[in-house]
Amino acid sequence: MDEDRLEQPEEELDEELEEALDAADDSDVSAETDQPEDIEEEDDDGRAWYVVHCYSGYENKVRHNLEQRIETMGMKNLIFDVVVPTEEEIEVKEGKRRTVERRVFPGYILVNMIMTEESWYVVRNTPGVTSFVGMGNDPVPLRPEEVSSIIKRMESDAPRIKVTFRQGERVRIVDGPFNDFRGTVDEIDMERAKVRVMVNFFGRETPVELDFLQVEKA
């Protein structure tokens, strides 16, 4: 288990999640996910979505543990859904495209619940859970705009493309008329999912614009 993450103070965890939420809000390339239910914004009965920090890499196990506790402890009237947001990601490795499922917020799960002392106790004492995200001992629910951002990311039709290269790095072109040419990354356009590579063509440095999936790290 990731012991370094467990030693982080809650303030740092809050900042880390805030950065992840900002990234989700800015992302336009993501995928549909096989979640059991869609995330919905909070209702008038007091239910809301809360973020729970858990052991990184054990998100699905923690979700299973919590769902079992909800069933056995008769908490369905207070805890309604547990979600591990995921998205599909396309990466190019050794010239081959591969689709993998990745967690949107590693080390966190989302719980839709009405916050009471009893429901807090059930979630907080689930094996694998380390804390609620909030100020001190007071869990803070996600804002409606944050919930909308997560919904948008989970329901988007376009898979997210993993970028493994950076500006100035050497890359190999794996598709198109310049297949197997090597060059240097000159510019990365995240909005258009394009990369400009400087390729030595007939003794001259020539800029070539390519899709992210047409290049890989050399």
Fold and architecture overview:
There is one protein chain. The chain is built from five helices and 14 strands. It has helices spanning 3-6, 10-26, 59-72, 117-124, 144-155, and strands at residues 47-54, 79-83, 86-93, 96-103, 108-114, 129-132, 134-135, 138-139, 160-161, 170-173, 182-189, 194-201, 204-211, 215-217. A hairpin with a 2-residue loop joins strand 7 and strand 8 (138-139). The two termini are 32 Å apart.
Which helices and strands occur, and which strands form pairs?
Blueprint: H1 3-6, H2 10-26, E1 47-54, H3 59-72, E2 79-83, E3 86-93, E4 96-103, E5 108-114, H4 117-124, E6 129-132, E7 134-135, E8 138-139, H5 144-155, E9 160-161, E10 170-173, E11 182-189, E12 194-201, E13 204-211, E14 215-217
Parallel strand pairs: 3-9
Antiparallel strand pairs: 1-5, 1-6, 2-5, 3-4, 7-8, 10-11, 10-14, 11-12, 12-13
